[in-house]
Every structure is written in structure tokens, then in C-alpha cells.
TrEMBL record:
Organism of provenance: Novosphingobium olei
Cofactor(s) of this protein: Zn(2+); Mg(2+); Co(2+)
Protein name: 4-hydroxythreonine-4-phosphate dehydrogenase
Similarity field: Belongs to the PdxA family.
Pathway assigned to this chain's UniProt record: Cofactor biosynthesis; pyridoxine 5'-phosphate biosynthesis; pyridoxine 5'-phosphate from D-erythrose 4-phosphate: step 4/5
Localization: Cytoplasm
Function: Catalyzes the NAD(P)-dependent oxidation of 4-(phosphooxy)-L-threonine (HTP) into 2-amino-3-oxo-4-(phosphooxy)butyric acid which spontaneously decarboxylates to form 3-amino-2-oxopropyl phosphate (AHAP).
Amino acid sequence: MIQPSSPHPLALSIGDPAGVGPELACAAWALSGTAALPPFFVVGSRRVLEKAARRRGLHLKVRAITAPHEAAAIFPNALPVLDLGDADYTPGVPDDQGAALALAALTEATRLVREGKAGALVTGPIAKSRLARVGFDHPGQTEFVAAACGVAADDAVMMLAGPSLRVVPITVHVALSRVPSLLSAERIERRSAIAAEALVRDFGIPAPRLAVAGLNPHAGEDGRMGSEDAAVIAPAVAALQSRGIDARGPLPADTMFHAAARATYDVAICMYHDQALIPIKALDFDEGVNVTLGLPIVRTSPDHGTAFAIAGTSTARPGATVAAIRMAGECAARRHGA
Ligand SMILES: NC(=O)C1=CN([C@@H]2O[C@H](COP(=O)(O)OP(=O)(O)OC[C@H]3O[C@@H](n4cnc5c(N)ncnc54)[C@H](O)[C@@H]3O)[C@@H](O)[C@H]2O)C=CC1
Ligand SMILES: NCC(=O)COP(=O)(O)O
């Protein structure tokens, strides 16, 4: 089915300029014709993008715009950028100046989308610890965008999505030792319900099937290997079912991700970060998208990080960035059409 398109170009924040974000923004633009991407503009630095493109051997024009509405006309011939100023381009060597640019770009891109001047937000990769040095006070971009939208951090639900799998971690950027105490039936139910609602609204899945993972080996083995599965996760699944949501579990996590199992659900609800992200990064690393559910705006990001070690070497693959731009456009179009 052809979706109506978002009326506004998408805003792509540049990410840390020492990482792979700038070169992948250029690479995505270079692929935009063959990949049929919606028009987008970068929020960041024209000079950094020009240097990143040159270093990657991409022959493209970067054109500064002063407002998002100028992007669509420029996009077929050049990469539009809302220029926040110059910064050093030293791939692989992050510094505070670059982190400040990344934070300014994230802030401005979020503002433009919130104000309806851009159709959706695609965030380039940042290093959270580097941004923390310049005043970033959030566990990640998910929580930053949630705060900017006036949404409680816990109600902004991270989902990683690729061609093989969708996963939602109930707890995210916390130490593993804290996970059991952070899991409650209410929290699992609330975040799972937000995911189910978003799969209907933004992904066009009319009755999403949720597979809820256990926490412990063999989902607790009748309490012999942990109590949380029966005491916390099972009541959450029952509560979801009583709301008419197609949820089942707790399921042993070790057997949830093989191909036949994956065919039985639309999203795996996982209890902690690596339970969710290991399978998707193993299966779909090059096309994996991190999408924030439950926001008044659409926000996506490539599933990978700054990859400082390979920045500037032309070996960073653009697939996840291309997929993040495409997914943002599709979700925005669904909302626009709705
Ligand atoms: N969307 C975001 O803003 C994300 C940010 N991060 C941040 O990135 C930083 C680095 O995190 P890491 O755990 O090292 O993950 P990473 O994703 O940056 O790198 C992990 C491995 O994958 C490779 N890799 C990453 N992207 C690639 C690409 N496009 N093509 C080919 N190979 C690629 C890297 O070279 C490295 O070997 C951390 O500070 C983390 O917080 C991590 C994940 C997502
Ligand atoms: N592991 C996912 C990740 O680090 C991305 O987090 P966020 O910055 O999108 O919140």
C-alpha cells in the first residue's frame, strides 16, 4: 500500500562529529534515490559534513538552509543542512567541542520536530559519556527526547526493530544488578501496552502479538531458578490479556529467538537491555533501528553507536541509518494519514 507522505522533511541530528554519524548522513543522502528515502536535512555543521563526505570519497554538495521548509527543494541535488557552526573534524578523536555540537544538534532537531516544522526526528549516534561532560543529563537520547516532549522517561519505550525481529527492553541503561528490583508487574504492563498501542498506530499492525520473556533461566523453572517470573512477569501478562492485548509469557528467553519462534509474535518484550539487544544485533545489525514509542513525535536512530574506531575509514556501513530514515518517514506518514 502506498502511504501518504509526511508534509515536512525529516530532521537528522548529526551525532558526535568524531563518530560515524556525519559520514553516514552523507552516505544515506547518496543512497536516497535508490533507497527511495523521504527528503531529510541534517542539523549540525556544513563544514563537518563536507569534510566527512570528502574523506569517504563521496562527491556531494552540502547546502545550508535557514529553515526546514527549504530542504525539500534542495534535497534532490544536495544534502541540506541547518548549520549550527563549524567544528573540528577529527574522526575517532572525540572532544568536548564535538560533544557540544552533537548536543546542540539534538536539541535543535528535537525542537523543530516538536514544533511541527520537521516531520520526524532521526538521531545520529552520540557517546553518552562524552555528552555528559558538556551538560547532557539523561541516560540516553530516548530520555532526552521524552523530556523535551513532556513525557515521563518511563513512558518513552525503546524498541529495536529490524527485518527479522522487534524487541522492547523493559529496563534499559541500568546495571544488571539493579534489574530485578526495577521490574514490577505495573511497569511491565504499562511499557508493554505502550508498545502494543504504537505497533497499531505507527506500524500498522492491527492486533500485535506480544511474546514476554522471563527473567531467569527457563523462566524460573517453577520457582527453582528465581521467583520474578511467577511473581512479577506472569501477573503483568495476565493484566495485558485482560486489557485485550494478545500477550503470552513469561517465556524462556533462550528459545524465543530462533526463526520458528520469531514467526509467532510481532514484538519480544524483554526484561533487560542485553536480553533484547543481543538477538537483534546478531540478526539485524546492519538494518536495525532504534525507535522511541509513546511520544507525540516520531523518533528513530540507527541501532549502532558512534563506532569511533572506524570513523573516517569508509568502512562504516550505512544500512542502519538508511533504515532509520526510512522507518521515520513511514511512521510519520502513517500518523499523517491517520
Ligand atoms: N544511537 C545511539 O546514539 C547509540 C549510541 N551508542 C554509544 O556509542 C558508543 C560506542 O558504543 P559501542 O558499544 O562501541 O557500540 P558501536 O555500535 O559504536 O560499535 C560496536 C561495534 O560495531 C561496529 N560498528 C558500529 N556501527 C557500524 C557500522 N555502521 N558499520 C560497521 N560497523 C559498525 C564498531 O566498529 C564496533 O566494532 C557508546 O558511547 C554508546 O553509548 C551506542 C548505541 C546506540
Ligand atoms: N543501546 C541503545 C542505545 O544506547 C541507544 O540509546 P538512546 O540514546 O537512543 O536512548
